Amino acid sequence: MSKELLGERATRATSAYEMRSLLGLLPNPDIVLRRAGKSITVFRELLTDDQVNACVTSRRLGVLSCEHEIEPASGHRADKKAAEICRTAFEHVDTDQLVREILNAVLFGYAPIEMLWRYEADALTLADLVGKPPEWFGYDDDNRLRFLSREQPINGELCDPRKFFAARYEAGYDNPYGSGILSKCFWPVVFKKGGLRFWLNFAEKFGTPWIEAKVPKGTDANEREMLADRLVQMVQDAVAVLEEGEELKLHGVDVKGSSDLYDRLVAVMNAAISKTVLGQTLSTEVGDKGSYAATKGHLEVRDDYIGADKRLVAVTMRKPLGLLTSLNVAGATPPVWRWFEEEDVRKDRAERDSLLREKLGVLFTPEYIGRTYNIEPETDFTLDQVAEQPQESASIDANEFSDEADAQAVVRLVGKVKDAVK
């Protein structure tokens, strides 16, 4: 093989287009941060906006409302052992908080996580997984994560991959920092706040009637000034004493047409925020032209975004699950993090149990039925046939199945059921 095919040719060191960092860290290429001259901390302020907060919460809760489990990579004994070790390790971790920390990558582009380890029964296991502020970290020319410590505030300390990893959203070779959705919300929030500020000033200036005073010709300056002072007091107290010949007229301003301009500006900016975070507007904005079909379609778009977030979490969790496996079960394949809807998994189990009952004659105990389907065995149901003891084995007639693959699939399911009813 030619030597030219080995290694990497197009890098920051060899590219005439790409400039390398002079300080050891690559600057965040986010366009908003560069043009506004801000740091990534400015994005935290956007979360105080009511529309941004509502949309982010809706998207985040869509993920947190789902159940998850750690599944073995296969039915091999080593893989099952690895999955059990990982499940035990994660009993010490607040997984809801961990998922929130990982989902911060969607907001900021990247979300560093530190792994805290401890020894238990002479084995290395997790003590916790803690999300850390992204502004404490950066990436170098080789796209490696670095911690900006007090000892190395410029170049940063290279992060040990056994201690740190980062969830990243829409990251690539040219942008290891990722591209967070809060960056796309920056200008809509700025314009919205500016419009609200002008709106309040407009309401304060023109929202109350103003007074026109007429005085006889020849009135000297001192008398005019005294009248102006009385008008100021009138505005405050709604009472005024006039001299003979003085006349007042109240003028009102129709602010509705002018204020609607600001109202429409805020509505447009809110819609832009909703589309950026959720991909649609109807789940956060109720209009007079909505329909059931349109709302349903918009919610499906939101579900697509939530599905992408769940995949981000599942991919990110490969790192700690892989480390736990390599440290404790040599040669095993790391388990996988899987999301599921509780109702869906019960339907899948019901179909599985029905197949085992019909094809193999497997009898389930009331305790298994109650535990699996969350119903009380003593009060909610009875069984025509009850298995007094879990079956140790089952014979399979391959002729009962349409093909060999179906028979093998059922054989694998038998093992799972036997484990479940024990």
Give the helices and strands, then pairings.
Elements: H1 31-36, H2 42-46, H3 50-64, E1 67-71, H4 77-89, H5 95-108, E2 110-120, E3 123-131, E4 137-139, E5 145-147, E6 157-158, E7 164-168, H6 181-206, E8 210-214, H7 221-237, E9 247-251, H8 256-278, H9 292-316, H10 318-328, E10 336-340, H11 342-360, H12 366-373, H13 404-421
Antiparallel strand pairs: 1-10, 2-3, 2-7, 4-5, 5-6, 8-9
Compact overview of the structure:
The protein has helices spanning 31-36, 42-46, 50-64, 77-89, 95-108, 181-206, 221-237, 256-278, 292-316, 318-328, 342-360, 366-373, 404-421, and strands at residues 67-71, 110-120, 123-131, 137-139, 145-147, 157-158, 164-168, 210-214, 247-251, 336-340. It has 422 residues and is an alpha+beta fold.
Throw out a few tags for this protein.
alpha+beta; 422 residues; 3-stranded antiparallel sheet; extended
